[in-house]
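In this section we walk through a basic example: taking a raw amino acid sequence and producing a predicted 3D structure, encoded as discrete structure tokens. The instruction is simple. Fold the sequence below.
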Amino acid sequence: MKILLSSIFLFLTLKCNAGVTDWIDFNLEGGHVKIPVSIKGIDTFAILDTGAQLNAVNKAFITKHDLMFDKGSMIKVRGVFGVDKKTTYRNVPVSFFGIATELSKVAEINLGYHTNGLLLGSGFFNSFVVQLDYPNEKIRLITQDSVEVAKFKNIEIQSQKGTGMPIVKIGLPDDRHLWMILDTGNAGGMVVERKVASKLGWLSGGDRKSTVSTGVNTTIETESFRIPLLQFGPFELENVLVTIPAEGKNSYLDSQYEKTGSRLKGKKVQGIIGYDVLKHFLITVDYKGGHAHIGLPE
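The resulting token sequence is shown next.
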């Protein structure tokens, strides 16, 4: 993928003497950002996922270490490719970056191999301003009173009504655009509904590959291809990976907040954007405030 800088921008430099951690290495595996954590004193890794409204523990990790936690209620977990009921746990002891805490309403899900013990979603990102330096594979956390990301933001972004997840405006040729969830848990590029791809004329070419994609609840057949150009903040990116459900396969990529008794609606969200776009940048995310800055690392 080629990146074209379409406008002059100021690199975000945080000049804070307090409330900032050192840069800490993370593991980048298969497009997932993983940090070292411990659960009940057992070392493992956590996947960081801005596209998840909950925290979750891997069923394989629980089985491997024969763990027991206090059970909570059953909840419905909506993934990209399905909805399923999941068990939750209370008072799960977790530590990361020297912070010891207990997590509640932690869903039990499948996260692959048992070494992926935990998924940290909105609860983690709501607590800090998070900087992810993808090219250098480093992360740091900043207290929210130490920096005002709103003053430096250079991408159109807001918190999605109803979920609080960060949604960004992605520019396309011919003055078109899509609102998409900024999803660090998505190991691919853009994922959109098939009908959206068709409307944008992306299915007229024949250069599509049959693929398989796995969400939090299920695995489905998909198709992948590349589009020539998109705008991401001040940057233009070329040859961007797009994935769509195979014909006849269901997904839950479209969403729009509607308040009962009101004609006011939130932005119509039409997909998610992940690693194939994010991998080039140092991204500063103020999840709670709904702001972000996209830059090139030093």
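Looking at the output, two observations stand out. Helices lie at 59-65, 122-125, 194-199, 275-278. DSSP finds four helices and 24 strands in the chain. In the next section we compare this with other chains.
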